[in-house]
Amino acid sequence: MPNALLLLPDFLLIVTGYLICRHTALNRPVWDGVERLVYYVLFPALLFVSIVRHPLNPATALPIAACGLAIIGTGIVLAYALRRWPGVDGRLHASGAQTAFRFNSYVALALAERLAGAPGLAWTALLVSVCVPVCNLAAVWPLARQGGQAYGRELARNPLILSTVAGLSFNLAGIGLPELASTTLARVGAAALPLGLMAVGAGLQMGALREAPRLAAAFLSIRHAVLPMVAIALVIALGLPPAQQAVLVAFAALPTASSAYVLAVRMGGHGAFVASIVTLSTLIAMAGMPLALLALARLA
């Protein structure tokens, strides 16, 4: 499948969720339960097993990890800074800020092997392992603050953060999972992406973007314009090997995480606003990712 079409199944799942919720008996109450299942069980299982399965080697992984954190850190700083815009609604900002720096790790892993073979898959797994905890911490903070919730308490009980911390602990300690446990968790986690994307579609209300179109455009600009440009500048300045350059630029151009919608809903944010951004991000990335790789090829 060409890179431009890699995200088409994701978009079709969003459309499927929208149609099922609007035009069948599986309406909104059903999807409330699906969102809870994804948030408390499926995504945590996916994050945990993905991190545990790919051992980290800090000595050889430092340049890639540092670049990944620099890219994500840029997105976090810029997304947080938008809160200072005149007239920005606090709840909409807290809900949508995460879409500027979080990423769809399933798409990242699917694309990595196509770009750089087995080494590309290992590098991307490293990026996921290092960056997911940072993204989750940064995503929870605005929502907890906006909702008047104690940040420490939210961190201590947030299932996405708990699963990533547990996965990193197992990974760094060299603790492997028995084959039965690993296979079971992998199969549970595999349901996270389709159900998460369909939940996005079920919560989709494109009219919600009218509440803050400039803010949504700013989040999407950070995710799909600024971060790829930062990645291109970094990999060229550091003189990384071409395969690593491609993996990092593709990583920076990924669509935002579908779990952003579920997190916003579960923490009292504006779910419809986030669902609309997730949908647009998936569409933009279909063209934006190949364009970012083309720009790298011409500039490197």
Give an overview in words.
The chain has 300 residues and is an all-alpha fold. It has a single domain (3-299), classed as Up-down Bundle (Na+/H+ antiporter like fold), CATH 1.20.1530. It is 78% helix and 0% strand. The protein is built from 13 helices and no strands. The chain has helices spanning 8-23, 28-52, 58-81, 90-96, 105-146, 151-157, 159-173, 179-190, 192-202, 213-238, 242-252, 259-266, 271-299. Helix 2 runs parallel beside helix 7 and helix 3 packs parallel to helix 11. It is globular, with a radius of gyration of 18 Å. It starts with 7 loop residues before the first helix and ends with a helix.
What is the domain total for the residues?
Answer: 1
Number of strands: 0
Spans of at least 5 consecutive residues with low confidence: none
What is the 3D shape?
globular
What would a concise description of this structure say?
With 300 residues, the chain is mostly helical. It is 78% helix and 0% strand. The protein has a single domain (3-299), classed as Na+/H+ antiporter like fold (Up-down Bundle).
Offer a few descriptive terms.
single chain; 300 residues; mainly alpha; Na+/H+ antiporter like fold; 13 helices; 0% strand; globular
